[in-house]
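Quick start: what a row looks like.
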Amino acid sequence: MNAKPARPSGNEGDTMKRLTPIGTAMTTLFRSGRGPMKHLATVALMLILSVAAAYAHDESVKMTFSGTSDTSATNLQQPDTSNDGDNFAGEGTLGSFTVRNVRAIANSPTASSSCSGANQLYLLELAGAGVFRFQDGSLLEVNLTQGSDCIDLVTGLAHCTLTFQITGGTGRFKHASGVLTMTETVSAVLADALGNPVFFAATGEFTGRVSGVATEEDRQEER
């Protein structure tokens, strides 16, 4: 018994849906045209397929980082929050990078079953965004969709988990999409005159899946 061919899934399926009517039109044009028209239809169809292939990549990524965090001068105007700014550098699946994040972190703790010790505070992250810059100059832009910090008042360490939606970028990330999760360990380095920590050392990683990243060969073919 003949097995049915597997259907494309995820981004490949979405790409094929978008290409189907275009491919049909090109095929009709090819069949009905004569001479130069056939040649033009063939070139157009090849161009469409090559561009689709260039941005069909779906890659699992892991990127480690280290750097500093401090109070950000950028005010996101979220009620009852403090604004945090991150400056990290790291390397991983997509190459070496730097990243700058701005985040609005709640001042008032929230109840949590995973961070509920007598000396622990659980704070939500309500808004934010970030920009990665890679060695080739390409930028990857992300938007914070949810996040939380579990702070141990005895050790002074905070464990943070944030989810970022990829919104695009420049260069090889012009058509990028996907989701990245940032896990971070933060330790206080400096406090102000009132004893409030204001400058931190941070280490952690970004993991997730990124789609639509063009390789150098893809970008050369597109040009």
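That is the whole record. Strands lie at 58-71, 81-92, 97-106, 120-134, 139-152, 157-169, 177-191, 197-211. Confidence is low (pLDDT under 50) at residues 4-9, 15-19, 51-55.
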